[in-house]
Amino acid sequence: MKILFITDNFPPEVNAPATRTYEHCMEWIKQGVEVTIITCAPNFPHGNIYAGYKNKSYQKEQLDGIEVIRVWSYITTNSGFAKRVVDYFSFAFMAFWVGLFQKHDIVIATSPQFFTTWAAWGISKIRRKPWVFELRDLWPESIRTVGAMKHERALDWLEKIELGLYKDADKVIAVTEAFKSNLIQRGISPEKIDVVTNGSNIDLFFPREKDYGLLQSLNLENKFIIGYIGTHGMAHSLDFIVQSISKIDDENIHFLFIGDGSMKSKIIEMASRLSLKNITFLDPVIKDEVPRYLSIIDVSLAPLIKSDTFKTVIPSKIFEASAMQKPILLGVEGQAQEIIEHYGAGLCFEPENEKDFLAKVNLLKNDQEVYDNCKERCSHLAIDYDRKKLAIKFLTLLWQFTNSNNKCNF
């Protein structure tokens, strides 16, 4: 099988879409699949091209056996809706033209930058090959939720296109059962939708001793550390977290924020204005370094803003933290909450409820029995969400689909 995969994000970028795609592709290659990735020059989240890369019309490289083609796109910071739309659309346009000339049996495009799916749709029509919509985010619904765009007519128009793409796709692979339910309620045939959740690479994320050298360098020895590692974006409710931190009197509780995004400067400014001494901000780290930083935290924080839309979301960071037996402090309702409560791998607080948040922080800090039980239960969650197993499940679904689809000739 030859797979053409279109994604806006790919290593050396370290966000969740880049990691999921890379780790899936690595497992597929082990199964004898040929994979070609079409992506852009790495630049997330600041819109600054990484060292060693240029924003050229076409450049090819080999990354661990994966053929990676990088195309030109209009690159901008991860803020400002109009510029980002131009960014995403320009990439989709270039990916379409380059993708037309790549040998493949099936083309996959992944959201949340759902303009990538436009490219897959066009390639499919011209090359007469099936295409798969990997649904990672209900876009543009999530844009409406965070208020990044106020033009309701434009959003309505984009949602009509979104629905048309679901209907046209030969298969939809959703990352949550809630996404599947959403599509079924909107008239998409359940037979074409399968679910492959996020997970963790347990060869990289596993229980290990704390890196005491790192603790010393950060001057955080003997602290109970609550860590957030990931994108600091509009959806992540980090301004609420920072505001709530100001109400914590226990000097042994410390928050560690690692990452970047459109809201980072705002929350750093807020922390400074509140004269907070119990919070540290660090720049993003490469994927292989994340376990080192996870090793020093005691609790992994995963919040989102309070919204019905985000009840369908499962933050990928809960799987990596669980694999390292770090209890989760989850501020997300819906399916993510169901997973954490089912496994007992952490505690959940109502999103943007300060009283509940502070109560759960204190419970994890002060009740050793609760903490140890959550820590032990994390391993059960990690085993069930092993990314290798999930990658094979994804590939199996593709094999089953292509073997029964007369559009494929291979």
Mind explaining what this structure looks like?
- With 410 residues, the protein is of the alpha/beta class.
- The mean pLDDT is 91.
- The radius of gyration is 21 Å and the shape is globular.
- The chain has an eight-stranded mixed sheet, sandwiched between helices.
- It folds into two domains: 2-199 and 386-403, 3-Layer(aba) Sandwich (Rossmann fold); 212-384, Glycogen Phosphorylase B (Rossmann fold, 3-Layer(aba) Sandwich), CATH 3.40.50.
- It is built from 15 helices and 14 strands.
- The protein has helices at 16-30, 81-99, 115-127, 141-146, 152-168, 177-185, 212-217, 238-245, 264-273, 290-296, 317-323, 335-343, 354-366, 368-384, 387-403; strands at 2-6, 34-40, 58-63, 66-71, 106-110, 131-135, 171-174, 193-195, 224-229, 253-258, 279-282, 299-303, 328-331, 346-348.
- Helix content is 42%, strand content 17%.
Helix and strand topology:
Layout: E1 2-6, H1 16-30, E2 34-40, E3 58-63, E4 66-71, H2 81-99, E5 106-110, H3 115-127, E6 131-135, H4 141-146, H5 152-168, E7 171-174, H6 177-185, E8 193-195, H7 212-217, E9 224-229, H8 238-245, E10 253-258, H9 264-273, E11 279-282, H10 290-296, E12 299-303, H11 317-323, E13 328-331, H12 335-343, E14 346-348, H13 354-366, H14 368-384, H15 387-403
Parallel strand pairs: 1-2, 1-5, 2-4, 5-6, 6-7, 7-8, 9-10, 9-12, 10-11, 12-13, 13-14
Antiparallel strand pairs: 3-4
Helix pairs in contact: 1-15, 2-3, 8-9, 11-14
